[in-house]
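Hi,

I'm pasting everything inline rather than attaching a file, because the server keeps stripping attachments. The sequence lines come first, and each chain or strand is labelled.
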Amino acid sequence: MNKVIEIRECSAAYGENAVLHKVSLTIEQGELVVIIGPSGCGKTTLLKMINGIVTPTEGKVTVNGEALASCDLVALRRQIGYAVQGAKLFPHMTVRDNICYVPGLEKKMTTEEKQCMAERMLEMVQLPAQLAGRFPRQLSGGQQQRVGIARAMAADAGILLMDEPFGAVDEITRKGLQEELLSLQEKTGVTIVFITHDIDEAFKLGSRILIMKEGCIWQEGTARELTEAPRDVFVRKLLNR
Amino acid sequence: MQILQIFWDRRELFATCLLEHIRISLTAVLCAGILGILTGILISRHKKAAGVALGVVNVIYTIPSISLLGFLIPLTGIGNRTAIIALTVYGLLPIVRNTYTGLTTVDATILEVAEGLGSDGRQMLFRIRFPLALPVIISGFRNMVVMIIAMGGIASFIGAGGLGVAIYRGITTYNMTLTAAGSILIALLALVSDRLLSLAEKAVNRRYGIE
Ligand SMILES: Nc1ncnc2c1ncn2[C@@H]1O[C@H](COP(=O)(O)OP(=O)(O)OP(=O)(O)O)[C@@H](O)[C@H]1O
Ligand SMILES: [Mg+2]
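And the predicted assembly:
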């Protein structure tokens, strides 16, 4: 198999505050890795290490065979879709311009091309096409979040990083989006790293699940392996639904 | 009444002075605007340079305008050119400061997202930072325009044209009405410019979805 993401013995800190401790993780082409763990345990930080937003204080990150420390980060990031925790849409751009942001970095797009792409992506995240002309503040939280997903997917990248992407949407829509993500993955073989607090979601989506605790990967495995042989009471409690 | 009368009686004087005033102010606005925004952009990248540059424009700002004009005369002589230079120098403070503040106070999480999505340095500046800073920059620009127009009134003390000529002539000939009329025209010009700019501001805000 083809190693797409390789994190070797990486630590991370914000100033004095050490957040990750010698984390190692290898992700192969087409995997859908789900990360769960208590708030503040370092999930987002781990994700940001993959696209070079967070630089490890020690260790080495390799993506698509290139070491992050020495490669062209801008070019690499365009090959990584990124759905941020809390959507974080660009407030001064319409939904259409938000969605087309990454493709627009590479080439100049006409309004028609943008509209066309925006409508396609909006459909994928189950939003009406009329939203394309709106500004983010004119959307509900759940709608913003889905536009954030659309923006990540429009990059049409081989890797998708998704940080609690379905947190703010209702149960039914969430089910739909999960199906959509699974079918997208099956179709395109995209590699996905997915953070969630929802254990059901983790079990449904994850081909592999990482449980994090206090800046370490505490246990990893398939849903089955984890439920059958939890490492300790912490894991059992976390998985206990 | 007297003032209306004098506007009519001396309409030719006022027309030339007004046009000259607009010409001088506009030139200074363009110079200060371009120079100020460029400086603001440059120093937004270097904290140290920013401290120095902001300090310098601040100090310049505190020099009494009359003495700045005085300092300039030996360097650039008298006339419109010196007036334009002085007005430009004064106009720098609001625009440099606001450009800098606007660019450096953009929400850091938004910047992080833009970076994470693969924007290069230029794209960060022109697609994210600058448009998000634009409301603050425009308010500095309005400030600057009003200031330059008002200050333009004293430019005639060093032999430049503009409405200051009418004011100055009123003073030297004990004609208070003439002085008042010139001052009123300057105030009106400043007000009208400010209104026009506020319209432009509204259009920009609409474009960027700000209410
Ligand atoms: N920009 C930052 N500056 C300083 N400390 C930070 C910063 N971002 C995160 N931290 C700290 O790092 C630790 C890990 O944060 P991280 O965002 O990775 O947690 P998380 O697992 O994603 O949590 P959540 O589930 O709440 O999103 C936390 O203790 C947090 O306070
Ligand atoms: Mg997080």
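The longest helix of chain A spans residues 171-188.

If the labels don't parse on your end, tell me and I'll reformat.
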